[in-house]
Amino acid sequence: MKVVVVGGGAAGFFTAIQIKEMHPDLEVMILEKSKKLLSKVKVSGGGRCNVTNACETIDELASAYPRGGRHLRKLFGRFNNHHMMEWLESKGVECEVYPDNCVFPKVNDSQIIIDLFLKECSRLGIRIQTETGVVSFTSNESGYSLKLLNGGEIQTKYLVFALGGQPKESGLQWLKDLGYQIESPVPSLFTFNMPQEKTADLMGIVVENAIAKIEGEKLEGRGPLLFTHWGMSGPAILMLSAWGARILNEKNYEFKVRINWLDGEGEAYVRSQIQQKQAIDPKKSIKNQNPFQLPNRLWEFLLKKLEINPENKWAEIGSKSINKLINALTNDTYQVKGKTTFKEEFVTCGGVSLSNLNMKTMESKLHPGVFFIGEMIDIDGITGGYNFQACWTEAWTVANSIG
Ligand SMILES: Cc1cc2nc3c(=O)[nH]c(=O)nc-3n(C[C@H](O)[C@H](O)[C@H](O)COP(=O)(O)OP(=O)(O)OC[C@H]3O[C@@H](n4cnc5c(N)ncnc54)[C@H](O)[C@@H]3O)c2cc1C
User: Ligand 1, from 387, 391, 397: best to mutate by most atoms within 8 Å of Cβ?
Assistant: First the structure.
């Protein structure tokens, strides 16, 4: 019996390997449209491949997926980040966990993952055919007939589609024609451009514990926030871009972002810190004595923006200025206009609707024996190794369901 995996990326390779490991009698082949295999793995994580995330619990893991987390949660019970790390170690790839829980191969080179997958395919006898694009499929008595771009056809019992993110809905029109519902694809994981704001001088500044929100929405991103030449980036912004991928697309990437620079602290905290400062250091200048451990350049920028004379002494600060400071520290507003792709990692939100899939097996409800996984389905995660982990878990689930 044959299994054809379409797509030679992370999800396709891991599926083929897992199927062959669990079911050695099945004939498994991978069809890849381009000349290159695992090309995204190669460039992933800045060429180092953030292969998964080491977060402890399944709840934590599942909460990193703006789309699909609820479904993945169940699958993580059987194959999760810790299983993946064990699998890699068992195959001789040592991993290193960084303080932010991102997991990279110890050698800091994505090529080690590519070499491992290719070696496993060769050991297990998985056939790989490049420059073989698939156009569509039809069902028949013995399974499915795959139509190839070159006009050829391949018969198979099982089919796994792992075609990656399709930036345009037209890329999945052939699936629509077969009756599938497609959630329109929009980008996720991007940084914010702020051409109207005078923040270019702040480039390179990182605020470790910021909270970013979109004005008028409930979404938020937490963590380090980085000023770039164009605007804002860093985990807090990327997280917000992922949770807000669809809403921000509808807003045509024009919106106001509100920042709390103090890890969510509110008015009472800021007021008490200022009162303390006024009591302890009344004669010190505001510019040199910032009670909030903010980077100095940002502190001076905020004072200038609020038209507070930075040379003033703490004792000279009146209630109007204190109120302005409270607002700027807890609810600072910036106009965003446009986005920039985050080169370390970006993904497509949307794709094949989960309503078309049995989410216990990843099998199509429309075509038994056909599976959809990876970035082409409506599941995506925030940055930090979660997108690969979705691929590994879905791939394992398919292998475990087949046969
Ligand atoms: C720059 C960058 C860095 C990233 N870094 C990370 C990271 O460090 N950690 C992380 O978790 N995630 C990262 N991601 C996201 C991650 O790479 C993707 O989520 C993941 O690669 C998706 O795997 P996939 O197998 O579903 O799709 P892909 O890797 O895109 O593979 C799909 C394959 O299918 C082929 N294909 C498409 N159509 C057809 C067809 N009709 N017939 C045959 N073959 C076809 C494609 O050519 C491609 O080779 C990064 C993404 C980018 C863009």
Answer: 387
Which of 17, 30, 175, 345 has most ligand 1 atoms within 8 Å of its beta carbon, as the pocket-test mutant? 345
Each residue of 181-220: pLDDT tens digit? 999 999 999 999 999 999 999 999 999 999 999 999 999 9
Residue nearest atom 31 of ligand 1, based on CA coordinates:
9
pTM higher than 0.85, yes or no? yes
Given 294, 318, 341, which residue is the final one in a domain?
Answer: 341
Write out residues with Cβ below 6 Å of ligand 1.
Answer: 6-12, 31-34, 39-40, 43-45, 49-50, 133-134, 162-164, 343-347, 374-375, 385-388, 391
Q: Are residues 260 and 353 in the same domain?
A: no
From residue 373, alpha-carbon distances to 20, 110, 162, 211 in Å are 17, 22, 5, 32
Residues 16 and 126: beta-carbon distance below 8 Å: yes
Mutate to test the pocket of ligand 1, among 15, 17, 35, 40 (most ligand atoms within 8 A of CB): 40
235 C-beta neighbours (distance < 10 Å), count: 19
Q: Say if CB 390 and CB 179 are below 8 A apart.
A: no
Q: What is the pLDDT of residues 100-111, one digit of tens each?
A: 999 999 999 999
| One domain, residues 256 and 215 | yes
Point out the domain boundary residue: 323, 341, 359: 341
Q: Give the tens place of pLDDT for each residue, 51-65.
A: 999 999 999 999 999
How confident is the model at residue 1, as a pLDDT? 83
